[in-house]
Amino acid sequence: MFRALHVAATGMVAQETKLDTISNNLANSNTSGYKRQDAEFEDLLYQNLRSPGATGQGTIAPAGVQLGSGTRVVTTSRAFAQGTMQQTGNPLDVAIEGNGFLGVMQPTGEVAYTRAGTLKLDSGGRMVTSDGLPIEPAITIPPDATKVSIASDGTVSVMQPGQTNPLQVGQLQLTTFVNPGGLTAVGHNLYEANAAAGDPMVGAPASEGRGAIMQGALEGSNVEVVSEMVGLIRTQRAYEVNSKVISTADEMMRNAIQSR
User: Fold this and answer.
1) Which pLDDT belongs to residue 1?
2) Phi/psi of residue 198, each to 5°?
3) What is the model's pLDDT at position 162?
4) How many DSSP H helices and E strands does the chain contain?
5) Which helix (H) or strand (E) holds 168?
6) Could you report the per-residue pLDDT of 38-94, keeping only the tens digit for each?
7) 93: which residues sit within 8 A by CB, 6+ positions away?
C-alpha cells in the first residue's frame, strides 16, 4: 500500500514538470524564434518478486512478477521545427528558412546562438540584437546609407548617396550543429554550445545544408496553441488520477488498520 503512495507521488511530480513545460510554451507562443519544449518520461526501477523464466517444480514461469516504482522526467527535449514566417517590412529583420543559427557575441566574449532575427543598429552602426548584442561576425552599416539589402546568402549591401552600385559591407553567417537539441537555452532567445550539441559549424547561408535568409520577415514560434491546450488537459487529468490513487491507497490503509 505504501508503494502505491510513492508511485502516485512520482506521477504527480512528473506531471507538474510537464505542466511547467506547457506553460512556458504557451507563454512564448508569440516569441520570435522560440522552439517548443516537451517533457519526456521514463519508468523507474522494478522490484522482481519472481523473474520471468524462473524454474520451480519442473516448470518454467512464462512471466514474472515485477512491481514498478513510478516515473520521472528524463529530459525536456526541444523541437527545432520551422516556425511560421511573419512579414514585418523592416529591412533589418531576418528570418532563417531552414537550419542554422545567427551567432551573437556576449559581453563575456563567448558566442551564443539565436533564431530570433530582430536586428537593429546601435550608436556605432553595428547590427545588434534587441538586447544590444552584436552579431558575429560584426557588420557595420555606414551612417549615410539610404537602403540596406540582405540577400538570401546573407550578403549585406547598402546604397549611399551619389552611388549607383550597392556597397557590400559584410555577410551574415549561420552556425549549424550535429545535435541542436543539445544546446543550452540561457534565455533572451539565446543558446550556448556544449559537448552534447557538437562542434559549431559556421558557414554562409544557403550552403552545405544551411538555411537561407529572408529579409523583412521574422520566424515565429513553432508552438501550436491548440496542441498545447490538448496537452494541458491530458496533464491535468493524469495529475487528478494520480492524486486519486493516493486518496484510494490512504482509504484502503485506514480500512486495514480499523479491521485489526
Assistant:
1) 55
2) 95, 175
3) 87
4) 2, 22
5) strand 167-171
6) 999 999 988 887 777 677 676 776 777 888 889 999 999 999 999 999 999 999 999
7) 117, 118, 119, 215, 216, 217, 218
Measured in whole angstroms, how far is the alpha carbon of residue 215 from the centre of its chain? 24
Q: Radius of gyration over alpha carbons of the chain, in Å?
A: 27
- Look up residue 22 and give its DSSP letter: H
Nearest residue to 48 (alpha-carbon basis) of 63, 59, 64: 64
Whose cell is 530582430? That residue is: 118
Q: How far apart are CA 73 and CA 131, in angstroms?
A: 33
Task: Give residue limits of the domains in the chain.
Answer: 2-79+223-258, 85-219
CA distances for 70 relative to 136, 212, 216, 244, angstroms = 46, 46, 50, 15
- Exposed/middle/buried for 28, CB within 10 Å: 0-12, 13-18, 19+? middle
